[in-house]
Amino acid sequence: MAKPFFRLQKFLRRTQFLLFFLTAAYLMAGSLLLLQRSRLVIQQFSRGTSNNQALPVSEVILGAGNLDSRTAQNPRLSSKLLVGMYVLHDPMSDPRYGPRWLMSRNSELRQLRKRWFHRFVNEQEPMQASGMKVVKRTVENKGTYIGCFSDDSRERTLKGAVFYDLRKMTVSHCQEACAERSYTYAGLEYGAECYCGNKLPVTVAKQEECNNECNGEKGFICGGVNRVSVYRVEEPRAGSKRRKNVIYRGCFRVPENLTDTFPASLIQSNLTVEMCSEFCTKKEFSLAVVRGPECYCGYPTTQFTLHESMDRIYCSRPQNVSSMAEVTKEEDYCLVYQTPVQDTRCTDRKFLPTKSKVFVALSSFPGAGNTWVRHLIEHATGYYTGSYYFDGTLYNKGFKGEKDHWRSRRTICVKTHESGKREIEMFDSAILLIRNPYKSLMAEFNRKCAGHLGYATDRNWKSNEWPDFVNSYASWWASHVLDWLKYGKHLLVIHYEDLKQNLIPKLKEMVKFLNMTVTEDRLLCVENNRDGNFKRSGARQKDLEPFTQEMKDLINRYILTVDEALRERNFTGLPREYVPR
C-alpha cells in the first residue's frame, strides 16, 4: 500500500514542478516578444528616408494626445509608450500610409487618449473625497442633495418611513420610495438604510463623515455611521400624480379625550378625505380621522385601538333625523383611514446586549409563515431573530440576525426547519409554528419557483415537479411536528391561522414565552405594520386547486395523525379548517 502511495506522491511533485517550469517559460517568452517589438518600433523611426521626410518622434507623440511636453522632449522615450500609441508601422514603408492617413490616425489616437484619460481620472478618484466630490456625484440622481446630518436612533427626525436593502440600496431607490409616500425628504444611512420624512435633521455634520458607499450603487454616498445623507425628493412632473396609498380602516366611536388621543388636528369646511390624508401625511402620522369638518391625526393607541369597528351607517349623515332617533349623533363616530406614512414606533431593532441564557427556537415546516412571524417578533420585542441557515434575500431586507452565528445567543430566537433529535435537543425551548399543510405546501412551492414574494406559474403547477414535491414534503410536514412534540423540552404551539385572526393575543403569548415585556402601544404598532414587506405580489391564480384526490387522501391522513398527537400532549388540536377535504 505504501509503494503506490509513494509513486503517486512522486508523480504529483513532478507535475507541480512541470507546471511551474511551463509558467516561467511562458512569461519569459512573452517578455522577449515585447522587447523585440519595441526594438522594431525604434528602428523604424530611426530609418527615416531623409530628414525632410521623417517626422520627429516628439511630433508623433504630441499629435497622438495632450501629453506633457517634458515627456516628448525626453530622448530616452519608453518603448512601452510607443507601443501604447499604436505606432507600429513605418508611415513611409507603404504607399497607403500618406500624410492624410497620418492626420486621420493621429485624430483617432487623440480621441482614444481623451477617453482613456477621463476614465483613468474617474477610476483613481478616491471614494472618501471632499464634500465637493460627493455633491458632484449626487447631483446626477433625482432630487436635490441637501447635506450630511447627524442621526440619533432615539430622536430620529426622518421617521416617517423606514426601508432596508443591505445589498441593492441606491439613492434613486430611496428617493422613489419616499416620493411614493408623499414625503419631502429622503435620507440614507449605513449604505443600506432609507428614511423618509418632512422635517430636516437639526444637527449638520461634516461632509466627509458621510463616507459609506451605497451598497447597490458604487461611487455614490449613502450616509455613514450615525450620519445621514439627505435629499429633497423631486417634485412630480406636470400631469403625473403620486400614488395615494390611502386605505379605509372603518367607522369607529370617537374617543373621549380627542386632544390626548390625536396630537394634530385641522378644522376646515368642505373637508375631504384627500385633504385630511394629505395633512396627516405631512405631519407624519399613520392615521387620518375624519369627523365632519374636523380632521385628526394619530396612531392606534390604547384609547383608540381600532379593534371595535361599527357599521358605516353610524358615520353617515342622516337624511331624516327623526327616523334615526335610535342612532347616536354622527359627531360621536368618525371615519378612519390609513395614510402612506409608516408607523415607526416599533421599527428600531438591535441585538441582545448580553447573551441569552435560554436558547429558543422558532421552528416550523417550510412555508408555514416563519419569516412573517420573525417580522412580528422583532418589531414587538425590538430585538433581532437569528437563523439556523443564511438567507441573503432576508438579510438584504433588514433581517440582520441572518448573518449572526445561530449559536451566538445574541438574538431573541432562532429560525429552524430541522426536525432531527439532535437538532431539537440543542434548544432549551421552542415556539412551534404550525400551518395548514395544504397552504404550507403551496407557499413553499411558490417560494421554490418564484422566491419569497412571488407566485409559481401555471406551467409550474402542471409540471411533474409538483406531484413529486407533494409526495416528499407532505410526510415532512407531519414528521416535523411529531418530532418536536417528542423531543422538544418546552414548547409553545402557535397555529398560523389563529395568529392571523387574533394577532395581539397570540403575539402577547409569544412575547411572554420569550420572557419579554412590551407596552400595549408597541403591540398596536406591530398590528398596524402587520404585513411588513413580505406580502406576496404578482399574478396570483384565483380558485387554484392543484391537489388531486390522491394527494388529498395522503395529506388528510397526516392531518389526523398530527391532530391526535397534539391532543395527547395536552395541546389544542388543529383548527377546524384543517378538517380533511
From TrEMBL:
Keywords for the protein's UniProt record, in alphabetical order: Repeat
Alphabetized InterPro entries for the sequence: P-loop_NTPase, Sialate-O-sulfotransferase, Sulfotransferase_dom, WSC_carb-bd
Domain of life: Eukaryota
GO molecular function: sulfotransferase activity
One Pfam family recorded for the sequence: WSC
SMART domains to which the protein is assigned, alphabetical: WSC
Any one Gene Ontology cellular component term annotated for this protein: Golgi membrane
Record bears the keyword Lipid metabolism: no
Record-annotated WSC domain positions: 142-234, 245-346
The family this protein is said to belong to: Belongs to the WSCD family.
Name listed for the protein in its UniProt record: WSC domain containing 1
Lineage: Eukaryota, Metazoa, Chordata, Craniata, Vertebrata
Gene: WSCD1
